[in-house]
Amino acid sequence: MIGSLRGRMASKMPPQLTIEVGGVGYELEAPMSTFFHLPALGQEVSLLTHLVVREDAHMLYGFATQEERWLFRNLLKVSGVGPKIALALLSGISVEAFAQSILNEDVATLVRVPGIGRKTAERLFIEMRDRVKGLSHEPGAAPSDGANPESEALGALLGLGYKPAEAARLLKAVEPGTYTTEELIRRALQSAARD
Description:
195 residues; Helicase, Ruva Protein, domain 3
């Protein structure tokens, strides 16, 4: 599996882009939320990736943050949602707004996204409710940009198989202080072992 790419921005035309890594051009598709953060052509870029293997193609998708990739991967687990709809959702709504829409069962917000009808929105409410609980932020909180230690630690705990609500609870249980991502993960896992 290709987990990330770092190289030179070779081309970008939404939703496709090409990153040249060591003389090889990797073609990816990315949501608009990622496109807004891409550098100019010729500059270095680093993206998290997800590889989808189909019978007729291997498709690589790129993301600016852990939260975007996590949501993309979880959307693919929803019945009737494929990469095209998952990209449309990430392009049309932020991760935090999506989480709030799911928790509030806000059909109107979701059906504004192209390709999302009422039935798909209702399926998303049912299948994503428990998964997004840890992603929603308190009102007035700054949305996560994926670059801070708390966000990276949350992504790591999710990668280890913790549910979002449980991962968020473990991180909140860590004594207040300034920690690196590794220290936060270690302390969160130690508190999980004590439970």
